[in-house]
Amino acid sequence: MELLIASNPDPDSRLAYLLRLPIEGGLVFRTSGTWPRTKALYCYPVSADEWPDDPDIVERAPLRSCRRRGAAIDVVLDRYRENRSQLVFTKARGRDAVFWQSPRTRKQARPNLRTPSARAAGIADLEIIVDSREHYAYRFSTQQVNVVKRTLPCGDYGTLVDGRLVAAVERKSLGDLVTSLINGTLRYALGELAALPRAAVVVEDRYSEIFKLDRMRPADVADGLAELQVRWSEVPIVFCENRQLAEEWTYRYLAAARQWAYTERDALPRIAPAADSETGDAPAAPEPSTAEVRAWAMDHGLPVSDRGRLRPEIWQAWRDAHR
């Protein structure tokens, strides 16, 4: 018996891999990774016919055991490390869902705490801009947040004041953090974030997990992060225990940054009328896409075509409404 992982031949799918388990005639799932190393992986069950006739095998591992136990499938691989995992059949937001988890990610997913429901900085319906290119973005479903999707110049989540981006947060899993550090993209991302009045990087894992890496020297990763923090000390890299806590931290950081921006804007003219506020250097908020403005116009009863360019008066109406 073998656990097989192949590349998903569907280019439009967000789940890049196919997972095949040799039980019940062969169970096939679409999934986003080859092993639940840093977080539980969402799996979408599909027909066994979706398994390609000539699969592009990414990983093949012999199985010691693969058995269904109630609402879960226990998977034990015949290897020394990363050998135990479980596919759990559950419900998420009222819908059937399957999550692939390991003992490590299961422990992370249940920190035995409840995040507070109080409003961050006392702000009701905080507006958070989510970068439209962000995959599996935070939903902020337990916070009082108005989420708007738009392309951000940097970061994955941001907040606006007077139409300017005053704060942004870049989200990273531990794997993303290490990869971007090694290939150099993290350096450029911090440079862009440093141009904002306030910015941070939040990591969905513990700092201690760096020293458990087995595919690179942990000391090199720790030294690289320390060097970046010295160079861009104004952009903190914050390690949170898991995705839930990283989402909560992002919400409260952006709320505090928005409150700071309003206080800074109102206080500086009284303290030093000639002084320029830090928020004045913030980049202007990015323009929405044509599809966003078209949907907004339709919701407000403005006559627009189903495709093609929008008339200038429609764009002006959107700007007037969001000024």
Automatic annotation (TrEMBL):
Keywords: DNA-binding. InterPro entries: E3-bd_dom_sf, ERCC4_domain, Lsr2_DNA-bd, Restrct_endonuc-II-like. Residues 127-207 form the ERCC4 domain. It comes from the Bacteria. Pfam families: ERCC4, Lsr2_DNA-bd. This is Histone-like nucleoid-structuring protein Lsr2. It comes from Haloechinothrix salitolerans.
